[in-house]
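User: I've been trying to design a sequence by hand for this structure and keep getting stuck. Would you show me what you'd pick, starting by listing the structure so we're on the same page?

Assistant: Good idea, let's start from the same input. This is the structure you sent:
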């Protein structure tokens, strides 16, 4: 008997505090979405995850607490959280922009991307620091071509 409403699946992985964390995080998100044939847009999920992880690596001090990636797949879409040991909230994620971002500046673009492409995003304090998260709605399934 097949139940078509899957229970939420979740993955949690500690990431290295280095640039190597980004491809590891992207691969995990890609695998998670592929494994369940989840309908959230995989490319967008990977892109936004890479931005969150890169931000965490760049802006948080190296400490005993690792950066962690948490991916949850629900019938309502996918939620990705990046936990890091720095309790201060990320700039630009939830604050409205006071001035338009300078397109030539590298930093800050990632959080604008996340705000633009996710269905919702935010951050919350955790026992060890903070978690920054975004959600993606289920994508409209692509038209499947009939098999030859």
């Amino acid at each position: 008997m097949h139940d078509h409403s899957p229970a939420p699946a979740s993955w949690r992985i500690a990431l290295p505090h280095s640039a190597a964390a980004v491809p590891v995080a992207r691969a995990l998100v890609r695998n998670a979405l592929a494994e369940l044939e989840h309908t959230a847009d995989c490319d967008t999920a990977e892109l936004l995850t890479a931005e969150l992880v890169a931000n965490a690596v760049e802006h948080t001090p190296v400490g005993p607490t690792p950066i962690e990636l948490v991916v949850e797949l629900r019938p309502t879409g996918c939620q990705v959280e990046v936990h890091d040991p720095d309790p201060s909230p990320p700039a630009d994620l939830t604050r409205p922009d006071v001035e338009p971002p300078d397109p030539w500046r590298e930093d800050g673009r990632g959080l604008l991307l996340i705000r633009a492409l996710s269905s919702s995003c935010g951050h919350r304090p955790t026992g060890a620091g903070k978690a920054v998260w975004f959600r993606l709605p289920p994508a409209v399934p692509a038209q499947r071509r009939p098999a030859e």
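That's my pick for every position. To get oriented when you compare it with your attempt: The first helix runs from residue 21 to 35. Residues 62 and 127 are 17 Å apart (CA to CA).
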